[in-house]
Specification:
Blueprint lengths: L4 E10 L8 E9 L10 E4 L2 H6 L6 H8 L3 H8 L5 H15 E9 L5 H9 L10 E3 H6 L2 H7 L7 H19 L5
Parallel strand pairs: 1-4, 4-5
Antiparallel strand pairs: 1-2, 2-3
Helix pairs in contact: 4-5, 7-8
Protein name: Exodeoxyribonuclease VIII
Organism: Sphingobacterium multivorum
Keywords: Hydrolase
Length: 180
Amino acid sequence: MERLFTDVMIDIETLDTTPTSVILSIGAVPFNIGDGQAGQEYSSKCNVSMQVRDGHTIGMETLKWWIEQDAGVLSNSLSGGEWVRRSVENLNDFISEKCVDEVRLWSNSPSFDLVILKNALNNPWPFPFWRERDVRTFVAIRSEIAKEFARKATHDPVDDCLRQIDMVCAVYWDLNGISI
């Protein structure tokens, strides 16, 4: 039987900063905060044109920001992909399969990533709000330690999840006197 994970890191890339944003891609990596072990990754590219048709939004400031980034990341995200609701449903199934019932959902920050995912699902979110954890707030407790583990954000959601897991675990271990 596969090991169930206590935590999952979630990251999305979007074309706006509002709850109705178009989602380019979703990434998630289950992990155990106690030992830093990470599991199988979840990655999904979402269909942009279907989201625009369904009323999801693109922000001009966000679009300008993307144009200033690595062109390959954005161009890869704009073609193809699956229906966003299906991507979020698959994410929820993935988390339920790979993680304990009391899983902690981490993101940078839940008021961004998880709010946008909840809106895209357009159905009840299966995880209670009290299981949500904020990477940014947690890492700020020991920012000097987190900086040692920080890698540059790639704007690939799985890579960003792995980077955030490293930082969260480093801070957790320091706070709890764990040396790994």
